[in-house]
Amino acid sequence: MHGTFARRTLITATALGLALVAAPATAHAQSAPGTNAPVRVSLTVQGPDGILFKGKIRTRGHDVTTTTGGTHTCDGTNGGANPSAVPTPTAALDDAAHRRHFTWDGAWYASFDDYSVDTIKNVSGGASAYWNISVNGTPTPVGGCQFKLNAGDTVAFTWTAF
């Protein structure tokens, strides 16, 4: 009986050890290729006088170009926020603007490695307001090029008075 218990314990320990050794490699292999795979999100742009844009958009992290800020990476690796490229709120705004033919602009801040969204559809924050970015109803704790989006997220750029 003691030999059977010892064998079961050894087999269980060996199986668990193999599973633990294989798990990180398996998890990494599954998530690495699709890290910056396009995701579909709901995007709303709410200006001071109502909705400026509302729709579903397919997006992934990519380089973004604005008139004021120039061209910079906007793929979640900004500021070291994510180890690899991911879809982001500002990339989603940029994709929506290109596909639905509206404009947006923002300054680039090298110290933050991110854009500030200053104007959407000719509505600017100015001295008394700013464009707040939220995902699933919560303001993002980092910039719009740093926050990772997941499929089905609800992204909102809301004109917010001080």
UniProtKB/TrEMBL annotation:
Entry keyword set: Signal
Pfam families xrefs: DUF4430
InterPro entries: TAT_signal, Transcobalamin-like_C
UniProt xrefs under PROSITE patterns: TAT (PS51318)
Keyword Signal recorded: yes
Domain Transcobalamin-like C-terminal: 117-160
Keyword flag Signal: yes
Signal peptide limits: 1-29
Protein name per Swiss-Prot or TrEMBL: Transcobalamin-like C-terminal domain-containing protein
